[in-house]
From TrEMBL:
GO cellular component, one term: cytosol
Swiss-Prot/TrEMBL cofactor(s): Mg(2+)
UniProt xrefs under CDD domains: PRTases_typeI
Organism: Microbacterium album
EC annotation from Swiss-Prot or TrEMBL: 2.4.2.8
Pfam family, one: Pribosyltran
Keyword Transport: no
Lineage: Bacteria, Bacillati, Actinomycetota, Actinomycetes, Micrococcales
Domain of life: Bacteria
UniProt domain Phosphoribosyltransferase: residue ranges: 16-162
Keywords, alphabetical: Cytoplasm, Glycosyltransferase, Magnesium, Metal-binding, Nucleotide-binding, Purine salvage, Transferase
Subcellular location: Cytoplasm
Catalysed transformations (reactions): IMP + diphosphate = hypoxanthine + 5-phospho-alpha-D-ribose 1-diphosphate; GMP + diphosphate = guanine + 5-phospho-alpha-D-ribose 1-diphosphate
Listed name of the protein: Hypoxanthine phosphoribosyltransferase
Amino acid sequence: AADIASDLTTVLVTEEQIHEKLGQLAAQVESDYEGKNLLLVGVLKGAVMVMADFARHLTRDVAMDWMAVSSYGSGTKSSGVVQIRKDLDTDLHGWHVLIVEDIIDSGLTLSWLLENFASRGAESIEVLALLRKPEAAKVEIDCRYLGFDIPNEFVVGYGLDYAERYRNLRDVAILAPHVYA
Ligand code: PRP
Ligand code: MN
Ligand code: MG
C-alpha cells in the first residue's frame, strides 16, 4: 500500500544504527587500505543506499563502479540463477576491489560475483555487506566488513526491495506476509 507502515511488521535495523555502523566500517577500511588504490563496486540495485552512505563516511579518495546483477526477480526466494544486467566499466588491474552489498542471503549472488571477478586481475577482492542472514546461507561467503546478522525473515528498506518496492525506506524492516501472500 502507499502507506508503508501497514506493510511492515518489525523494524530490525534503524537508520541511526546503520549510519553508526557504516562509520565504524569506514574507519576500518581507511586503515586497511592506506596507500592503496581502492575501487568500491556497488551491486545494483540493492546496494545503492549502502554505497552512497558508506562512501561518504570515507575521508579518502576512492573510485566507484557498479555492476548490475539480479537473481530474485519479483519473488521472495533467490532463483540461484544470476544474470549480468550491466558489467563494470573498470579494468580491475591495479585496483584493490571492495564489493559493496546490501545483504548476503543465500550467498549465491556474491559467490557467483567473486568467482566472476577472480580472473579479472584485481590486486585484492573483499566484501562489505550491511546485512547477512546466517540461517539462509547455501554457500559461505568470506565477508571482511559486515554490518549486522539478522534473522531469516524477508526484509525490505534501505535499498532492499520486494518487487522493486520499499527500497526508499530509511530503516530495514520485516515485510508483512499479507503483502506477498
Ligand atoms: C538481492 C540483494 C543481494 C542478493 C542477496 O538482490 O540485493 O544482491 O539478492 O541474495 P543471495 O545472497 O541469496 O544471492 P536482487 O537479486 O534482489 O537484485 P536487486 O539488488 O536489484 O534487488
Ligand atoms: Mn542485489
Ligand atoms: Mg531485490
